[in-house]
Each structure stands twice: as structure tokens, then as C-alpha cells.
């Protein structure tokens, strides 16, 4: 038998005993190269000259199923114009217009920039910075962290977490739920 879950940590331990589901494999979302390949598969011969790697870099954390939906939406956008599919249609499907007011977008951008600047200054590799909202998050900053960090790296990580709130306050924006979750994570790390 095979099983799949997005929450292996919630599985009943009895299922994980030897002879049952005792082996597990983690399959992370594809990287930019993988996403570009999935895009090419779904596009077939459409957009042969498009830079799919550049488009794929705009989709960190997306899955193959997400890409299927994105290509479907891009084709719908093209059909609504009675036109053929363009790279701009794909871009619109990947990064749809954000309905948040400009002040809220600025607030999110300042917050994430605070994380990114301090992470960079502390020598961490900043992989992704976005203000694209997902769930409760108004944006996020991904940095490369050692799998088993030493104390100084944990303290640096706390500084990075607090930098978002500090950036908001430095530029006159109030702390928000993003700052609250950063404080919770900093507390957990410490």
C-alpha cells in the first residue's frame, strides 16, 4: 500500500510501525528549474521562445498542480482577448493583480525588506523576497539556514525576524500580524 499526506506529523503512530507505513519519502515542491520543466510540459509547442526559467522563479513553493492551474488560467486570459497565449498571459496568471491598497503593499514591502537587508548583512543567503500574499502572510522572505544551527546563527535568525517589525516602526507603520508571528517564532527559537 502507498499513502500520501501533506501532514505526516499528524499520522497515528500505529500506522508507522514496521510492516505498515514504515518508510516515508518527502517530496518537496520543485525548484525553479523543475517548475520551468513543468511549464514547458503543459505548454507543449506554445511559447517556444519564452524564458520559462524567469517565470518559474516567480513561483517559489508552487507545486505541479499549481502550474497546471496557472497554465489553464493563462489560456483563459488569452481566450478572453480572442488571442493566442503570450508570456504576459502567463505572468498575469502567476502574479495576478494584488487587491490590497497601496499603503498595505508598502507596509508589507518594508517589513520584508527589513528581513532581507538584515539577513544579507548577517551573511545569510536570501533566496526569495515577496509581498505576494498567501494565507495569513502578507509576504515572506526565504533565507538559507543551516540544518543544525549553532547558537550564534539562532541569535542572528532572531535579529532577522525582529528586523521586519523594526523596519515597519522606522518608517512609521504599526506592527501587524506579520510582526506578531515573527515575535512568536523568535520566542520559539530562543
Radius of gyration: 20 Å
Helix content: 40-55%
- Strand order, sheet with most strands: 1-2
User: What is the approximate shape?
Assistant: globular
Low-pLDDT parts are none
β-strand number: 2
How far apart are the first and last residues' alpha carbons, in Å? 41 Å
Largest sheet: number of strands, sense, barrel closure: 2 strands, antiparallel
N to C succession of SSEs: HHHHHEEHH
Oligomer: single chain
Structural class: mainly alpha
Please indicate the percent range of residues in DSSP E strands (runs of 2 or more).
under 5%
Number of helices: 7
Quick check: average pLDDT?
88
Write the layout of secondary structure elements.
Layout: H1 32-43, H2 52-56, H3 64-80, H4 87-94, H5 102-121, E1 126-130, E2 140-143, H6 151-170, H7 177-189
Helix pairs in contact: 1-3, 3-4, 5-6, 6-7
Question: What does this protein structure show overall?
Answer:
The chain has 190 residues and is mainly alpha-helical. Helices cover 50% and strands 5% of the residues. The protein has seven helices and two strands, in the order αααααββαα. It has helices spanning 32-43, 52-56, 64-80, 87-94, 102-121, 151-170, 177-189, and strands at 126-130, 140-143. The protein has a two-stranded antiparallel sheet with strand order 1-2. α6 packs antiparallel against α7 (177-189). The longest helix has 20 residues, at 102-121. The protein is globular. It starts with 31 loop residues before the first helix and ends with a helix. The model has no long low-confidence stretch (mean pLDDT 88).
